[in-house]
Amino acid sequence: MIEAGAVAPDFTLPDQDGDEVSLQDLAGQISVLVFYPLDFSPVCTDQLNVYHEVLPELEAKGAKLYGISIDSAFSHKAFQDHLGISIPLLADFHPKGEVSKAYGAYIEERGHNQRALVMIGPDLAVTWTHQSPSPLEIPGANLIFDALERQAA
Amino acid sequence: MIEYSDLECPYCARASQLLDELPLRRVFRHFPVVSKHPRARALAVAAEAAALQERFWEMHDSLLADQGHLDDPHLWERCERLGLDLERFERDRRSDALAERVDHDFRSGIRAGVTTTPTMFVDGVAYSGVPDTDLLSILRS
User: Fold this and answer.
1) 3.30.420.40, 3.40.50.1220, 3.50.30.10, 3.40.30.10: CATH of A12-152
2) What number of CA atoms fall less than 13 Å from residue A57's CA on the CB side?
3) ipTM surpasses cut 0.95
4) Which secondary structure element, helix H or strand E, spans residue A67, and what is its range?
5) Per-residue pLDDT tens for B57-115?
6) Which of A53, A55, A86 to probe by mutation at the B interface, max B CB count within 10 Å?
């Protein structure tokens, strides 16, 4: 898992609409990359739904969220519609998991991501990370708020 | 025991049935996840409006017992059955005070790390989902 202080690994990935999102697009804002196992698995559903509910508060604190899994852009689009959420979902589909591997969020034996959060500062350095002890354990939104408050202090 | 619950969530309905059988003091907090359950917030304020007429748990049980009928006319029927003053109920459930109360519960859940419903806190430990036999035996003792 990548650590705070590291330079965020570069990436360019399509979002759910096929539009490319690059690390450079995140310059000047606080970003949280939400690595999660798979679209349409019940636990992910709750995680992104809950994050969606607090998006206005996170945005008020200057933070933007991006989900990342190894699913395709088409799957992401269907998943986003299914959940009724607006968090952009980035497809780390081809080469499979390449960006997730660069951030240390990919589980080789399982072929999908673990549940991890990576906060990236306006200067594109990693400022905070959280790795869930197991894919079944969902990191609460409180962890993101706490990290934002520590950095604002 | 503190429970974070969403009144449109079927798992919360099942959890409540199981908890009802135990000698417990239940503290209810709203955790409506609207992107998942579009009526969750409307139901949360409806239950709070019933609470202002001393009928919180009655409304809570009624909603969870029949989650297929959650539109406004169904709420009015429930009010009639529970003997609520409908005019007051309608005024109260649209009030800023009750919206704020539900928001406050939701935010407290977020701060406590709640990510799914139901989540129950027993002696500061969080348990998520329908209570299993282990949790039920902890609660029984």
Assistant:
1) 3.40.30.10
2) 17
3) no
4) strand A63-69
5) 999 999 999 999 999 999 999 999 999 999 999 999 999 999 999 999 999 999 999 99
6) A53
